[in-house]
Structures
1.
Amino acid sequence: MASGVSLDREFTKGFVRENPLFILVLGTCPSLATSTTLFNGFGMGIAATFVLVCSNIVISLLRKFIPDGVRIPAFIVVIASFVTMVDLLMEGFVFSLHQSLGVFIPLIVVNCIILGRAEAFASKNGVLRSALDGLGMGLGFMAALVVMGTIREILGNGTLMAGTPYEFAPFGEGFKASPVLVMTLPPGAFLTLGLLMAGVKRLGERS
Amino acid sequence: MTASSNAAPEGAPVSAPPPADKVGASARPTLRVGPSPHLHGPETVPRIMRWVFLALLPAALVSVWFFGASAVKVLTLSTLFCLGVEWLCLRLMRTPGALSDWSAAVTGLLLGMNLPPTAPWWLILAGAIVAIVVAKHLFGGLGGNIFNPALTARVFLLVSWPTYMTTWLKPGQRQWLAPGTDLAGITEATPLGLLKEGRLSELSAGASDLLLGNLGGSVGEISALALLIGAAALLWKRIITWEIPAAFIGTVAAVTGLAYAIGGPERYLAPHLHVLAGGLFLGAFFMATDMVTCPITYRGRLIFGAGCGLLTAVIRLWGGYPEGVSFAILLMNAGTPMIDHYLRPRTFGTATARQGATS
Amino acid sequence: MIRLMGRYVLVLGAICLVAAAALAAVFEVTKDPIAASRAAVERQAIQTVLPAFDQVGTAPAPAATGGTRLLALYPAWSSGQFVGAAVKVVDAGGYGGDVTIMVGVDANLKVHAIRLLSHKETPGLGSKLGEPKFAGQFSGLEVPAAGLRVVKDGGSVQAITGATISSRCAARAATAAVQAVRERAAELAAPPAVEPGAAPAAAVAAGQGGAHG
């Protein structure tokens, strides 16, 4: 299945052409909730990518071993285990990031991208292809979150790289004092996602 | 308050369908369609928009009387900014519309009337950009918007800069306020603000103040009487119909009256003050009735108005913000396509499936 | 059919077993860093609201007063000398519900500093509770017998513009904290007889129950 596709296409398709957020519109809930700053978006992207790559590899390895009738429960157990590991590791080693991402780390379990790739790709393809697919999709998701986080942080918080030692105010302290607050709130998340989806679609139509 | 080509003109004759039980029984209805040219109504978008603009002026003039230079500044800047942004959008995005259709002028005036008199220039500019670019032209320009542009901008500003959007000048402060003026002492809370903060005992404005506009509030919302005069003109010209304002205001009165009757006067505002206070008249007559964003059938408009009223009352009584008119109208704007879908009038000459089965 | 069911059980069981083992391993590895991080966060909140100290303990928090609940009380000592106590207070009277504030009370029963821990107030208005412009004015405040009040209620605390309700929360929390420390000033004066160093971690861990409300 899909063996005619070259390996690098398997890897790069998640960046733009099949971007999980802007094109496939998967995983919108954590994207809207955690893309408040660049750093949060990046952290969520890393966590999701880790889970995606690991679960794709394991599910691809087990694909001949898992009977069809229980494949969904089996996938969920695998995914939930990796998510719990990420949750524990992040709480232990990047505590402040874990605090600001809050409940959305455990909720990676129900992120449609992960189960979607497991069901649609990893359970039908070899280990290498599945790993590349997971990595590409994960990085595409992370890129989308970073773009959203950057826009929302600059406009809604007046800063960039908040949460890291490199924080600065791109539009100056005056703007930072009264930024476009709505952009960090849920309506701003929908607004940003909607505009970016429209933009990506427009680009796709042109090329 | 933008009109669209796909919204039916208000004055157009609507042929009433025959009673359902007669269809297919005895009288066989005939539908006569003559050859073109068809009768052309006098309604055009610029004409409607000019009337709306004129109808808003009494309330605008009242605010100029009470807030002087500040009101003039807010209304002028808002209208000019909206016209400027519209001009840029028309040139750059090539969406339908024209400056001469007055729609941007109406949006600008409405936006100004939805802002506090203390609004700084950059706040007004941000509002104009959101109203014209995001709410109007990104959705396809005149007639394509889902949400009322002026209200979208107001909510965007309210959530982003709550302090600037809730600094209400006392009536009678007519002097020019240079940027950075200390506003302490010349501002006051609105009646709804007092209600939300549990300071109802400090409420001094009575029903007559609310009617005339002798209290703090957004530039265009303070005088219920002036808004009614403008609304009467629009009703007379059949540019708006009575269903939405009546259902909207009636529901607010009913729900707040119920709360007042059960909860008592210490905790709740009397229903007639709820009706006169805040942006209810401005919203019910001039923004909920926007032809593009409200349902097209009579029943649909009643549901739309009642929904606006219920949401407004719920937000005012139990919500996080003191005033809920703008949130309520935007939420019901989002529900308009669904209302229109479920209340689609039966096509003339057809029977519903159930009636067809019994005959 | 039975054989198929048996295979399902076997496969799922095997996967679960492996997953459980892997999780147990990760849990063991991360257990200590997580506890340390949690304790550090609580300890940092205590440190920001109190003068310098080298030993911190925990005392039972008194019962609720009105809508204000005390979650934890951390007395602190420097070289055996009582320097003050940090009190974690939840006030239910916020615009959006509970507001949790850590209030530092110094040995003279004055407010040393306050720090906003969690809230659901309106962004841009009530959320300014944590900003130095508002929170800073509490430093060094003495609490009168009637309690701290905002200017609008006849007190001295400058409320945040447009957020009087949220500002009252902070005033009430500071009042409750100072009163709680005043009530037990005598018993807090001397540090408990445990070797320094062991007390902070234990005390802070004990205070964890209410930390993530």
2.
Amino acid sequence: MLYVYVGLAGALGALARYGVGTGIETFWIGMFPLGTLLINLSGSFVLGWLTHFLFRSGRLSPSIVTAVGTGFIGSFTTFSTFSIETIELLESGALGMALLYVTLSLVLGLFSSWLGFWLGRRRFRREGVAR
Amino acid sequence: MTILVIMVGAFFGAMARFGIGQLVKIWTASTFPWATLFVNVSGSFLLGYLYASSAGPSLMLGIGVGFLGSFTTFSTFKLEVMRFVAKDWIRFGVYLLATYVLGLVAAYLGYHLP
């Protein structure tokens, strides 16, 4: 049954990714893959926060944690699209942009995840003290 | 129709990623995130192949956006990298670089295979 939950949440996560990506494309006409970058950064932030606060707080059942974390957020963000977008930039000769995309994904991705972790842990500790 | 095709692909993509994670847990007690590395590298290869092959729009949506988009993940990868911070800098570097280097090489190979 857990597989079905993960699959359903994953379907919603992918739909959200498609919706946000299409939305960003309506105002961003540049070659730079801004949509995927913003999706991946925001998803990394949210997963960091959820993992270190909400998922640890014991308010949610383990199946919901897996469905939301692995299913929804896992599917909302994507690595394969990032890879192929980088290759397409390279193929079109936009070497600098490809390098920028990889660097931003690497550095800001780590930062987003860390920020989510840090804010989540802070909230968790504060609520732990209050209880 | 677009929405349904993406959702069906993603339903199976997310389940496959989760299933591989469960299988790897049974096979090895290693704390290295082999499952995520595997899905991200293989998914990048397959998406590269799909882009280069003359796949129609529904295949691109169902398999590309839906299945492979959900089969691979960025957020879990970053979360796992961050777990190594200050605890194991070697694994931190190895996992981070392996995902980017192997993922990009795999997408390149898939793209040039057809």
3.
Amino acid sequence: MIFMTNTSEKPTLPAVIANAVSKYFGSLQVLKNVSFTVQPGEVVALLGPSGAGKSTMLRCINHLEKIDGGQVSVHGELIGYQRQGDRLMEMSDKRISEQRTTVGMVFQSFNLFRHMTVLENIITAPMMVHKREKAEAIAQAHALLQKVGLPDKASFYPSQLSGGQQQRVAIARALAMEPEVLLLDEPTSALDPELSHEVIGTIKTLADEGRTMLITTHEMAIARGFSDRVIFMVDGEVAEDVPAKQFFESPQHERSRQFLAQMEN
Amino acid sequence: MTNALNTEGMSLQIVHRRRWGAWLLGAATLIVVSTMILAAVRAQIMDLEVFYRYLFDGQIMRGAFNAVVLGTLALIISAIIGLMLALMRVSGNPILASVSAVYVYFFRGTPMLIQLLFWFNAFPIMFPDLYISIPFTDVVLIDQRMTTVITPFIAALAGLSLAEGAYMSEIIRGGIMAVDDGQRSAARALGMTHNQVLRKIVIPQAGRIIIPASGNQYIMLLKSTSLASAIGYLELLRITTDIYSANFRVVELLAVSAFWYLLMTAFATALQTTLEKLFPQR
């Protein structure tokens, strides 16, 4: 699975590297020297009890949260900062925005632009940021809606869709930017089991295509079903970083065992 | 056993509870109101003929037109001032935020009438000459007495716009804060710059939220133009008082001006309703 999408000869750079990332909210340290690597084509489930810092870690990868220590890089490019001597200076708003286009993000609460139709939600960023022609953006949007199974919803407003449909549109919107890495922050937590199912199906399709994904979730169907690796976080630290199979069959940590026992209930 | 469940398959008619108390109160209200109207008609509180004669009087209509122009221009300018102040306030920069807060405190904290009098009477005393030139050259753009520049219209427009700008900034700030943070995060994550997020996501959504409150402010402004009568601007109230101080038909003329203010309010309300329908809450 890991090198499925990279058949070329050149050595592959990791898709995401988090190196000793730390982050404070006021005096509270929410991330403590978090380090991990995600290879291209890998699907990594970021698990842990709530408050462990999973979502914050995810938001640090595209600089929606500013880190206070360490580095994050995507395909070898330092995110949010550039090195000047022995210091990391925060980049301009414009440069950071450009970097974000390589990292797609899907949110727990969908966050579709509620004043726009489904189609406008998908085409706005490609047209504004990638300067794509309108006709081209529309054609791409229709193809993506087809892919997520909502070909007839282009002219609907988000409020007219079910939660599951909204989340699938949100996935299409993220894909429209053609990101190299997709971050999914609790993509099914706001949905009831039936609606979760359709969203999980969509995410699984993306996994099968070999997309690089980092997913925070409490959903076993994702974590156990098709993740390659599990990073288990507790109290802002990485407690375990192992292949998914190993995590579920022989968890090493006491907290992992407790967590799994609760998850399986 | 009248409360027992009907098990015999017969269909019983359902009668909802009637709210007799409210209807009785309504009837009493109607009696009071009609008694008052009847008393007013019997007492002949005004001469309808005089009322009709002045209703479409040229001067009166000119005054009403001036009020609408003044109120509408003031609304537009105050919306621009308000947007700038609101953006300063939420910018996160302590200097910009405090300047905005102090502005709002001053202009919201002093009576509008005092502000109008200030711009018309006090300002030209403080700065008797208006002299604007292009720096480092000899080109002079304006060199005039302040009293000729500050006409009653300019003073009224400045006074109303600057004061209303303070109120609008709070309304717009409320609208901006009401836009869900997730909307901003999503737009940022798609690679939009700060300004693009503001233009494409925050302002359109905040705009919809502030329509009802802005309609309210428009009505307030249209009526507040009557304050400009104090500095001699020929708006509706000034013309009305000028006429009745000559012919003493106080009741009729005040009724005429009230009619025109009501008409303006109806226009503003219709405008607000149209905008709300044009941009429905999603």
